[in-house]
Specification:
The protein is 43% helix and 0% strand. By secondary structure, the protein is an all-alpha fold. The termini are far apart.
């Protein structure tokens, strides 16, 4: 048993510019076409928005253009360069110190599991490296 009209509520939210002002134009067009096909009203179909650069607003207002598609490099985990590892290690050290977290967290299985999820190629320093090498470098660093 389904509640009638309930399935369309999130879609109708996207269509309404007052309740969802951040929805992109191409998303509104897709939702409108989906609902038109679902309800059997082919007369309401709109052509899809293909290119953000070709659409111009006759009223002269500056509406947000849809973001261009990104390349796949943001989904690929490239090897961490030595410079990136050093920066990441210092940022991790500062986080641990300022959050008052024991250095033992660097050897926690759940912490490593989290790091593997967001950046598999990054190897976190051990608690010994954090508490000796990185701490010594941070203390010697001029403010």
């Amino acid at each position: 048993m389904s509640v009638e009209g309930r399935d369309d509520k999130p879609l109708k939210h996207i269509l309404d510019q007052n309740t969802c002002p951040t929805a992109l134009d191409h998303a509104r067009t897709e939702v409108r076409n989906y609902l038109a096909i679902k309800n059997g009203n082919q007369a309401l179909l709109l052509p899809p928005i293909v290119d953000a650069d070709s659409s111009s607003s006759p009223s002269g207002d500056t509406a947000k253009a849809p973001q261009k598609r990104k390349n796949l490099f943001r989904f690929v985990d490239l090897p961490v360069t030595p410079e990136q590892a050093i920066r990441a290690n210092f940022k991790l050290f500062r986080f641990i110190v300022h959050a008052n977290i024991p250095f033992l967290v660097a050897e926690n299985w759940f912490f490593h599991n989290f790091l593997d999820e967001i950046r598999p190629s990054y190897q976190a320093p051990s608690r010994y490296v954090l508490s000796h090498s990185i701490m010594d470098s941070e203390v010697a660093r001029p403010n």
